[in-house]
Write a structure and sequence with these properties.
It is built from 13 helices and twelve strands. The strands form three sheets. It has a seven-stranded mixed beta sheet with strand order 2-8-7-6-5-3-4, sandwiched between helices. Strands 9-10-12 form a three-stranded antiparallel beta sheet. A two-stranded parallel ribbon has the order 1-11. The chain is globular. It is α/β, with parallel strands linked by helices. It has two domains: 126 residues, Alpha-Beta Complex (Aspartate Aminotransferase, domain 1); 242 residues, 3-Layer(aba) Sandwich (Aspartate Aminotransferase, domain 2), CATH 3.40.640.10.
Length: 379
């Protein structure tokens, strides 16, 4: 039997999303920009799908632009925001625990002369809103802060950051990578006070290759792709209607049960933490996670990459951190300032509404066996 505990990396495509994609490819195959009847039907469907995603974050449909995924949304938001503010300043604020899709474009901007302040978390992975207030300057043009950390499950103070920006008097835009929070915790662009919000489909039961960027109404950004003027002229190219249909279907399936699913995952997370602490001698909790679906533990003295492979051979699938690290050490865990032995043994467990106690029982039993059968590292 297999036990999948890596939903923060990706999720299986929901049956409803599969059916929506197939229907879009076989029945709604028209080009949404075409003026004939198949095109009109495709255009009407696209309008409905955009509205569905917009409702999930409390936005207007025209504020949602479809992209190829969270990475594109993050890159576009950052580049467009600094381009828009380049005449006001060249300072950016972010955190040391952002996804690589945020940190890498910021690193490139640094090479082009921009100054980036990276806020460091405390030992539990939290960012204090006062850190943001102290970092803001008159020449700050962008703050980029994720909603839920993808490796620790911690919530970052996005709404407090929005208030701090307004109170400071600087004109910085606020971008939020909402990929791990979307449909896991309530997300409202108005309550968060963000100007830009990145979303991804494959974390919530849609196929890979589809995402969205919320762009606050009235915010003028440079287009990402020039061409035929699709997506409000911001991202030209014929829309991937099948992926968009699947994305909207996944959203419509998950949104009505958000609170119920959130409570279920929270209870399951607490069960898993308790079970692991009882069953695995020496295991320590790195983060209990504020979000309901992610927590991190460590088995000091053991190598996480060895543990991940050992568990995988037994049909138990999780990660040592973000899948985007591809075996490299996690900058998120390193930012916590913990001893090397704890960082080396770090494991991320991530859940979905489909997860079960049996999944976590299997993990606890297997990790207890690993501790008995594997040799600890000498480093």
């Amino acid at each position: 039997m297999e036990h999948y505990l890596d939903y923060a990396a990706t999720s299986p495509v929901l049956p409803e999303a599969v059916r929506a994609a197939v229907a879009a490819m076989t029945e709604g195959y028209g080009n949404p920009s075409s003026r004939h009847e198949p095109g009109r039907r495709a255009g009407e469907a696209l309008k409905a799908h955009r509205a569905a995603v917009a409702r999930a974050v409390g936005a207007r449909p025209e504020e949602i632009v479809f992209t190829s995924g969270g990475t594109e949304s993050d890159n576009w938001a950052i580049r467009a925001a600094v381009q828009a503010g380049r005449h006001r300043g060249r300072h950016i604020v972010t955190t040391a625990v952002e996804h690589a899709a945020v940190l890498e474009p910021l690193r490139e901007l640094e090479q082009q002369g921009w100054e980036v302040t990276r806020l460091k978390p405390d030992a539990a992975g939290h960012i204090d809103p006062d850190q943001v207030r102290q970092a803001l300057r008159e020449d700050t043009v962008l703050v980029s802060m994720m909603l839920v950390n993808n490796e620790l499950g911690t919530l970052l103070p996005v709404a407090e950051t929005a208030r701090a920006i307004r109170a400071s008097g600087c004109s910085a835009l606020l971008h939020c990578d909402g990929v791990q929070g979307f449909l896991k915790v309530p997300v409202s662009v108005k309550e968060l006070g963000v100007d830009l919000l990145s979303l991804s489909g494959h974390k919530v039961g849609a196929p890979k290759g589809i995402g969205a960027l919320y762009i606050r109404n009235g915010l003028k950004l440079k287009p990402l792709i020039f061409g035929g003027g699709q997506e409000g002229g911001l991202r030209s190219g014929t829309e991937p209607t099948a992926q968009i249909a699947a994305f909207a279907a996944a959203v419509e399936q998950r949104l009505p049960t958000l609170e119920r699913d959130r409570a279920a995952m929270e209870g399951l997370k607490e069960y898993g933490l308790s079970r692991l602490e009882r069953a695995v001698p020496g295991l320590e909790v790195l983060s209990r996670g504020d979000a309901p679906h992610i927590f991190a533990v460590t088995l000091p003295g053991y190598k996480s990459e060895v543990l991940v492979r050992w568990l995988s051979d037994r049909g138990i699938y999780l990660s040592s951190g973000s899948a985007c690290h591809k075996g490299r050490p996690s900058h998120v865990y390193a930012a916590l300032g913990l001893p090397k032995a704890k960082l080396d043994g770090a494991l991320r467990v991530s859940l979905s509404p489909a997860s079960t106690r049996e999944d976590l029982d299997a993990l606890a039993q297997a990790l207890a066996q690993a501790r008995e059968q594997l040799f600890p590292s000498l480093s």
